[in-house]
Amino acid sequence: MTITSAMPRAKERKTRTRTKRVSSLPAIKLSRLLPSHIDLWDPAHAALVCEYCETWCPITGMQSKVQKLVPHHTGKADEADAIRCRGSNRKIEFDMTIPEWHQALTDAITEASSRQATTVLPKAFSPATDQTLRARAQRTSAGRMADWNEALRTVADTDSNRRLMPAGDAPAEAPAVPRTSLHITR
Questions:
Q1: What CA–CA distance (Å, rounded) separates 160 from 175?
Q2: What b/e readout covers 19-57, taking b as 16+ CB neighbours within 10 angstroms?
Q3: Is residue 177 part of a domain?
Q4: Which domain holds residue 44?
Q5: Quick one: residue 125, left, alpha or beta (phi over 0 = left, psi -120 to 50 = alpha)?
Q6: Which stretches within 25-97 are classed as H helix?
Q7: Per-residue confidence at 111, pLDDT binned at 50, 70, 90?
Q8: CA 8, 9, 14, 16 torsion: positive or negative?
Q9: Positive or negative torsion for Cα 150, 154, 155, 157
Q10: In a domain, 92, yes or no
Q11: Which pLDDT tens digit goes with each residue over 140-158?
Q12: Which of the four pLDDT bands, split at 50, 70 and 90, describes residue 15?
């Protein structure tokens, strides 16, 4: 099918629709879903996450014999193409009560919060690092200037020693350089 400018768009939908159609897919059992994907706080406005399009969909027929997902599209209203989701009109099997769902949700929240770190602890210092940091904290600006001046004096002495050239034709602390070439005779 080619896409034209006349393609239908998903239109604004009612949250509750009344239809006798039922999906041929097997019924959704609430006990097999994650407790966080079910919303039963207000049974009159119950909803759950559709496993195909992963959007929150209301449950219709809460007062009747058959509860099912509201027919819905896969895309956003007035933006995406009007493609009906496979999970539309799918029956819902309430195999758990609202207090059981509430307890499962509370347990899931407790388990998730126990996995998260509550406080960030700083990394322990080695004794040498700790000693260095404490010494740095106790130093004053005058002490730092004295240390810097001492370092400058040491650097100046080292530079002057590097500039010295050895006296004569031989390097310091090395054998003399031969002036005649060596020839091997037989």
A1: 24
A2: eeeebeeebbebeebebeebbbeeeeebbbbbbebeeeb
A3: no
A4: 28-110
A5: beta
A6: none
A7: confident
A8: positive
A9: positive
A10: yes
A11: 888 888 888 999 999 998 8
A12: low
Domain count, the chain: 1
pTM of the model: 0.51
Please report whether residue 8 resides in a domain. Answer: no
Measured CA to CA in angstroms, residue 171 lies from 46, 61, 145, 166, 180 at distances of 94, 103, 38, 6, 18
Q: In what order do the strands lie in the sheet with 56-60?
A: 38-39, 47-49, 56-60, 68-69
How far is residue 117 from each of residues 72, 111, 121, 148, measured CA to CA in Å?
39, 12, 10, 44
Identity of the residue numbered 14:
K
Residue 11 has pLDDT above 70, yes or no: no
| Domain-located, residue 156 | no
